Amino acid sequence: RVPPAESGGGSVQAGGSLRLSCAAPEYIGMSYCMGWFRQAPGKEREGIAALWRPGAQPHYADSVKGRFTISRDNNRNTVDLQMNSLKPEDTARYYCAASDSVRCPRLDDRDYNAWGQGTQVTVSS
Questions:
Q1: Which residues contact 54 (CB under 8 A, 6 or more apart)?
Q2: pLDDT given for residue 29 in this prediction
Q3: Distance (Å, rounded) from C-alpha 104 to C-alpha 109?
Q4: How far is CA 71 from CA 1, 6, 10, 77, 81, in A?
Q5: Nearest Cα to Cα of residue 84 among 69, 73, 74
Q6: pLDDT digits 0-9 by tens, 57-95
Q7: β-pair type (92-99, 78-83)
Q8: What is the Cα 99 distance to its own chain's centre?
Q9: Fewest Cβ atoms nearer than 10 Å: which of 43, 54, 61, 95?
Q10: How far is CA 82 from CA 2, 16, 56, in A?
């Protein structure tokens, strides 16, 4: 299968916004759970948001709750991550992932089967 493909990363000043998008037609079309993870240099990968289907209750990490919003469009086969009020500590490489686990939308990366290459987000102070 074609893995998920992220886009939309870049550089922004603290307090700014970015929107990441993930194209994953072979997974969204199969009703996989979709999640966003990030990894900063020297740190472990962190699950930040996951969503089973449009309208379902999303799950967020405490570190991004209230600032980030995950959304899913099954017609476009995309899952987006709107990031507002960005902080320097949000700087990381962001990954989109797909899961067929019944435990989804848990943010445990062991539940996710397919991963994108990632997109870099850099937030300057």
A1: 71, 72, 73, 74
A2: 85
A3: 10
A4: 23, 14, 20, 11, 7
A5: 69
A6: 999 999 999 999 999 999 999 999 999 999 999 999 999
A7: unpaired
A8: 12
A9: 43
A10: 24, 11, 17
